[in-house]
Specification:
Helix content is 34%, strand content 27%. The chain is of the alpha/beta class. It contains ten helices and twelve strands. Helix 1 packs parallel to helix 2 and helix 8 packs across helix 10. It has an eight-stranded parallel β-barrel, surrounded by seven helices.
């Protein structure tokens, strides 16, 4: 069985590491470059860097921060936020990232996914899905809606249907983030995660809601995710990456060791 990955998320606003709850009330909490280095040294399998306001502010990503992060870590590193074209993707990869993460831009222009997959390979293309639970309707039969621009804009797209479309377009991985669970530390949205895992043939990262190591365990067992993304629990020093991995390993989940 392939090792399950523990991925640390760095949400960045105006070049500063920030964290909120359900995409609101963000507070600045530190330097993303120093944090990335610390998490790399602590045993993170990957780092995800999101410029969380780039799309909503219609600007490019902070490439200087991407370059500085790439200089201090030597693990896979994906970057998202404000990427609108192949040129934007080239710029991020040239700055040192190994993967591109599309979210809002992919919804507005799904062809970007195929273009990126053909140009850089599916392994470099991650698509983020920000998902909100809503009433079941004819257009959203799963009861899960895709929202974009940092949770500001409802799309009317069904999350399960969009996940299938994204996989068909050539994405190599999905990062499924539940807005309802984001930052709450009450656990991942397992029903959403599992439904998407069962709907697509590509790896799925569970995101939003980790508050303790047992939440990572349920994400990769009950939720069937191939990886779990964490933020608050390590940003605020509640648990270490090693503690999370040791918890998983003790319960038979294969992980890359930090010890």
């Amino acid at each position: 069985m392939l090792s399950k990955r523990v991925i640390v998320c760095l949400d960045v606003r105006r070049g500063i590491l920030t964290k909120g709850i359900k995409f609101a009330g963000n507070q600045d909490i530190g330097d993303p470059v120093e944090s990335a280095r610390r998490y790399y040294e602590a045993g993170a399998d990957e780092i995800v860097f999101y410029d969380i306001t780039a799309s909503a502010e219609a600007r490019g990503i902070f490439l200087d921060v991407v370059k500085r992060v790439a200089e201090v870590i030597f693990i896979p590193f994906s970057v998202g936020g404000g990427l609108q074209s192949l040129n934007d993707m080239y710029a991020v990869l040239n700055a040192g990232a190994e993967k591109i993460s599309l979210n809002s831009a992919a919804v507005k222009n799904p062809g970007l996914i195929r273009q990126g997959a053909l140009e850089f390979g599916s392994q470099a293309m991650v698509v983020g899905l920000d998902v909100l639970q809503v009433p079941v309707t004819n257009s959203i039969p799963s009861g899960y809606e895709i929202v974009i621009h940092g949770g500001r804009l409802h799309t009317g797209r069904d999350a399960i249907a969009w996940a299938k479309e994204v996989a068909d377009l050539g994405a190599g991985e999905l990062c499924v983030n539940s807005i309802d669970a984001d930052g709450t530390k009450n656990g991942y949205e397992l029903t959403l995660t599992r439904r998407i895992v069962e709907a697509v043939p590509i790896p799925v990262i569970a995101s939003g809601g980790a508050g303790a190591p047992e939440h990572l365990y349920t994400a990769v067992t009950e939720g069937l995710a191939q990886a779990a993304l964490i933020a608050s629990i390590v940003h605020y020093g509640e648990y270490t990456i090693a503690e999370c991995k040791e918890y998983l390993a003790a319960r038979g989940v294969p992980v890359r060791s930090t010890w």
